[in-house]
Amino acid sequence: MSISELPELSNSFDKKSSSQIGAGKRYAVSGLSGCGKTTMKRTRRIVMLLCSALIFTLILSACGNSSYNDRNLILSNEDSYTYQKCVDTGSTDTSLKREFQGFNGKDTIWMLNAAEDTSISIDLSADLSSGKFKVLLVSEDNKIITLLEGDDTQSTSVDLKKGTARIILVGDGTSGSCEITLSDINNVSVDSPSGGLDSEEWMNDFFDDWM
To answer: pTM to 2 decimals?
Structure first.
């Protein structure tokens, strides 16, 4: 081999080495990129699983915390309720005739103030299209008596002790109508905490005050 050929061999070697090194670099970068994508996919799956678990927990919590059977809420002197629509049609001091939609919570209808131990008669009916509904009487000594629940019609007599009892409506996503009539009221004064305003009357009064 002549001396003049040596540079050519050297150049050939340099080119091949450079090509091999470049290929190695490309391979290494490609390998890191694939690993990164796999890690991102795993992270995304974990986040989705955590979000799904959180949503499921919130749904179970909401179902378990329904006020429909909440004894503390029922016995409380404060009402907590919402109506999407509520219209009293022909109600009087001793009768309730109400149509409603989207009723949730507890709504006190009457306070029964008995001057002495006595009894009253109550006629009740409910016609529901959705949800759960019941009418309760809470006595002076905080006993809860179910007067009506669901689609039903009842006529009953209730003993009242001296003091104040309450008749309340309890709903859970309820739409429909109900009628309640009190009779044979002796030595009992009947008060309405809500003042007998339905949602349309309340809105009219609100705008009258601000116009």
So the answer is: 0.64
What DSSP string runs through 66-103? -GGG-HHHHHSSS-EEE-SEEEE-S-BTTEEEEEEEEE
Cβ proximity of 109 and 203 under 8 Å: no
Handedness of CA 132, 133, 137, 138 (dihedral sign): positive
Domain that holds residue 31: 3-62
Tens of pLDDT, residue by residue over 36-65, are 656 766 777 777 777 666 654 444 434 434
Tokens 């109600």: give the residue: 91
Is 23 found in the same domain as 89? no
Distances from the Cα of 67 to the Cαs of 93, 96, 102, 116, 173, in angstroms? 27, 23, 14, 32, 11
pLDDT value of residue 55:
59
In contact, 140 and 164? CB cutoff 8 Å: yes
Question: CA separation (Å) from 139 to 28, 91, 144, 161?
Answer: 80, 23, 7, 8
Using the 3D structure, point to which of 24, 45, 62 is the last residue of a domain.
62
